[in-house]
Amino acid sequence: LGLYISASIWFKLRGQVGWGLGFTLVGTAITLAINYLGIPWYGYYAAAWAHLACYGVMFWLCYGVGQYHMPVPYRIGRLLLYGGLVAPVVVGRPWGVAALGLGGYVGVVLGALGLVVAFERGVPIRWATSPRPG
Fold it and tell me: CA–CA separation, 108 vs 78, rounded Å?
C-alpha cells in the first residue's frame, strides 16, 4: 500500500484522477478473484495473499503508466533488493521460529535489518572468508 501511494502521486498532481479509478478497479478484480477462489481452501491466508497481489499489481501499473506521464527516478534496484531480503524472513516466519526458536529467528530478522541499514549508509560489507593458506 505504501509503495502504491508513493507511486500514485503523479496522477494526483496532474489532475488525472481517473487513472486512480482504473487502478482501483483492477485491484478490486484481483482481490475478488483470489478471495473467491482461495478462501474456501486457504481461509485468511488467501485473503492476505489477495491483498498483497492487489497492491503489488496496482503499484506496478501505476509505476509503469506514471513513468510515461511524469517520470520519477525511483531506485527500483534497491526496492527489489530490500524486498528480496525481507520476503524470506516474512514468508518463512512459521518455519524459522520452529527451526531456530524465537531468539534465533529474532536474530535473523535483526541481521536482515542490519544489512538494509548497512546498504543505505554505504557501509562496505566484508563477508567472513577463510584465511589464505601459507
Answer: 20
Assign 13 to helix, strand or coil: helix
The answer to whether residues 124 and 101 touch, using CB atoms and an 8 Å cutoff, is: no
**Total-model pTM:** 0.67
Length of the chain: 134
Rounded distance between C-alpha atoms, residue 41 and residue 50, angstroms: 14
Cell numbers for 80, please give them.
527489489
Q: In sequence order, what are the residues at sequence separation of 6 or more whose Cβ sits closer than 8 angstroms to the Cβ of residue 84?
A: none
Q: Which residues 6+ apart lie within 8 Å of 58 measured at CB?
A: 4, 23, 24, 26, 27
CA dist 127 and 122 (Å) reads 15
Does residue 129 register a pLDDT over 60? Answer: no
